């Protein structure tokens, strides 16, 4: 059975929007859907509600049918502990409530959730169904919350607390190609912070193309919720 390719981009804000839009365009042209990880705050300083250009771009993407994934409340800068990695249910509930409320005011509605760096505590996973989320993505795989189903498929990340050096990117390309050839579901993600580097952008695009060439069928994270078949 063919596996699937799920591609996502995080850290989308004023300084990265141009490079992110370029990569989205390249992937779209190659027939590879990309899901966008969005947060109301990044690094404690940037606020989506105050960035009209980024807000309008994201709303246009949503209107065009792009899959948007809530990426926490305050997607932290590299070096800080991941926001939802160790939270108990009570604190996770407060942060998810704040994030969903602020995004709703902006006009962004999604039932997909992924914590920063994909690191999610049991307490976070516990409260997500109460907010209507259908899917949560973690380092381990994909949690289908309405059916209480777990699909194991690790994420191959570039940047955002993970590697971005040439050797790391080379390993990501190889892992994507090998996994696709085995019929596995391949999850590729990149930080918008790293896409300004043309070599990083080129290698990330190459990884996505390699997975498709090896047999992975491109889709987005909404397809998981709607029941698209996934490889192992």
Automatic annotation (TrEMBL):
Pfam families: DUF2334 (PF10096)
InterPro entries: DUF2334, Glyco_hydro/deAcase_b/a-brl
Highest taxon of source: Bacteria
Signal peptide (residue range): none
Name of the molecule in the record: DUF2334 domain-containing protein
UniProt source species: Corynebacterium nasicanis
């Amino acid at each position: 059975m063919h596996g699937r390719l799920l591609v996502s981009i995080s850290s989308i804000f004023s300084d990265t929007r141009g490079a992110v839009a370029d990569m989205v365009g390249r992937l779209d042209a190659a027939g590879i859907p990309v899901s966008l990880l969005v947060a109301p705050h990044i690094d404690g300083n940037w606020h989506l509600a105050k960035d009209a250009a980024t807000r309008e771009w994201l709303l246009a993407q949503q209107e065009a049918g792009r899959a948007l994934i809530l990426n926490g409340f305050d997607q932290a800068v590299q070096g800080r502990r991941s926001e939802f990695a160790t939270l108990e249910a009570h604190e996770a509930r407060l942060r998810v409530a704040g994030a969903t409320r602020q995004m709703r005011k902006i006009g962004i509605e999604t039932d997909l959730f992924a914590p920063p760096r994909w690191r999610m505590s049991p307490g976070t996973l516990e409260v997500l169904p109460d907010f209507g989320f259908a899917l949560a993505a973690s380092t381990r795989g994909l949690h289908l919350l309405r059916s209480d189903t777990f699909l194991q498929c690790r994420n191959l990340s570039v940047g955002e607390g993970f590697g971005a050096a040439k050797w790391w990117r080379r390993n990501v390309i190889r892992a994507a190609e090998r996994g696709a050839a085995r019929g596995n579901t391949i999850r590729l993600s990149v930080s918008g912070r790293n896409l300004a580097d043309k070599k990083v952008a080129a290698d990330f695009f190459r990884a996505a193309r390699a997975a498709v060439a090896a047999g992975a069928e491109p889709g987005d994270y909404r397809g998981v919720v709607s029941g698209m078949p996934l490889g192992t």
